[in-house]
Amino acid sequence: MQPGGLTVPTESLMVSSTLARHRKPPPSAKARPAAAAPPVAAAPPVAAAPPVAAAEPAAAVRPAAAERPRQQRVRRGKRARVVAIAVAGSVALLCAAPAAVHWRAEAPSLAWVNQADAMLGLQAAAWLGAQVRQPPEIVSAGVAVVPGYSNPLRDVGGLVPERIDEGVDFAGSGPVFALGNAVITNATGDSAGWPGGGWITYQLTDGPDAGLMVYLAEDVTPTVYAGEHVSASTVIGNMFNGSDGIETGWAQPSGLSAESQLPQAGGISGGGPFPTMVGLNFEELLQSLGVPAAPNRDHTAYGLLPANYPAIQG
Q1: For residues 205 and 208, what is the distance between their CA atoms, to the nearest angstrom?
Q2: Contact at 8 Å (CB) between 256 and 193?
Q3: Does residue 228 contact residue 183 with C-beta atoms inside 8 Å?
Q4: Alpha-carbon Rg for the chain in angstroms
Q5: What is d(CA 28, CA 25) in angstroms, rounded to the nearest whole number?
Q6: pLDDT tens column, 238-261
Q7: How far apart are alpha carbons 156 and 216 in whole angstroms?
Q8: Could you give all domains of the chain from N- to C-terminal order, each with its CATH number?
Q9: Fewest CB within 10 angstroms: 72, 124, 141, 225, which?
C-alpha cells in the first residue's frame, strides 16, 4: 500500500522492479555480492555435416543450351528452303499451264500438214518418185539390192537356175520367201494345172513393183493362207526335191495363171516358144536381188511386155 491509501498491484511492482534492474542503484543501497551463476551445461557437439556433392560445373550444361539456337536456326533455314521450293514449283506450274492448254487445244489441228503439203508437196513427190525409180544398188560383185525387196531363194539348198519360160525354173530344196511386203491371194498344194501341184500367188503392196502379182508354182508346199499379209522375211512355201523343181514369175492380175498367157503379153502358154518377154523381165528382177542368171537369158525373147511392168534393162 502506498501513501494516500492506494493499493498498487503486485504485477506493477514487479514491472517496476524489473525496470529498475537496469537503472543505476541509489547511494544508500548496500551492494550485495552477486550470486554465482549456475554453470552452463556444455552444448553437445554439433555433428559434422555430410559432405555436399560438388555441383557439376555449369560449363557442362552450356553446350546443350548453346546448341538449341543453332538447331533452331537450321530448322528455320530448312523451312525457308522448303517454302522457296514450293513457291518456285507453283510458279513453274502456273507458267506451264497456258502452254499445256495451248498444246492440248492445238494437238488435233492438222493445219501444219496442209501447209507442208502446199510448200513441200511437189519437192517431196519428186524425191519419192526418184527413190522408187532408182536403179538397184550394187553391194558386192554379183549381188544387187532393189529397194524394199529381198532374194526369195536365199535359203534354198542346191539352187540351180534352169530355163526361162513363162516364168523362171529352178531346182533345189528349202524355204522360199516373199519378195517383199505383200498379200497372199492363192495358196494350194494340189493345183491340177501345174506339175507338183503347188500354186501360190501374192500381190506386192510396196516397192517399185507395188500392185503386180507374183506366182510360185510346181514342187512347193504352201506355208501361208489366202488373205495373209507377208513380208520379205516370211516363208511362203517349202520347195521339195521333185521332178519338176519350181517356177516363179509374174502372174495375171486375177491370180489364175501366168501373165504370159494373156493376149497383151503374147498369149504364150506351156508350149512356148521360150523365153517369154514376161519371163525374162522377172528373171532380171531376180538377178538384181542376187539370184544366179538363167542359162537361156541371152536367147531371143517372145511375146510382149505389158506397159505396167518394169522395163527390161539392156
Answers
A1: 10
A2: no
A3: yes
A4: 62
A5: 8
A6: 999 999 999 999 999 999 999 999
A7: 14
A8: 148-288 (2.70.70)
A9: 141
